Amino acid sequence: MIPEVVLTFQPDGTVHGLYTEVIPLPSLGRLSIKRATSIEFDDAQQHWVVRDPSGFELFHAPSRQVCLDWEHAFFNRKE
After folding, report:
1. At a CB cut-off of 8 Å and minimum separation 6, what does 76 contact?
2. Can you tell me the distance from the alpha carbon of 50 to that of 16, in angstroms, rounded to the nearest whole number?
3. CA 57 to each of CA 2, 35, 60, 63: distance values in angstroms, whole numbers, following the listed order
4. What is residue 77's predicted lDDT score, i.e. its pLDDT?
5. How close are the terminal C-alpha atoms of the chain, in Å?
6. What is the tens place of the pLDDT at every residue in 11-41?
7. How many Cβ atoms from other residues are within 10 Å of residue 40's Cβ?
8. Cβ of 37: how many Cβ atoms within 10 Å?
9. Which of 50, 52, 58, 76 is the least crowded, having the fewest Cβ atoms under 10 Å away?
10. CB 73 within 8 A of CB 59
11. Contact in structure between 75 and 36 (CB atoms under 8 Å)
C-alpha cells in the first residue's frame, strides 16, 4: 500500500509536508528537513513514545511502527 502524501505549497514557493520517498522530493529543489517529533523507547513504561520538540508526549504504543503510522496520519491531517 502506498501511503498518502500531503504536500502544502506556499505562495513563496516553499513546500511543507512529511518526507517520503514515494515521490522524488529533491527534484522540487533544495531540501531543508527538520524532525517534527522524536520517537523513542521508554524503558520504564516499555512502549514507544512520540514527543513534540518541547518533550510533550503526543502518543505512545508498544510498536514503533504504530507510532510512525500515527505520526504520519497526525501531520497529514494538519497539512
Report:
1. 4, 6, 17, 18
2. 20
3. 28, 15, 8, 16
4. 79
5. 21
6. 998 888 877 788 888 888 888 888 889 999 9
7. 12
8. 19
9. 52
10. no
11. yes
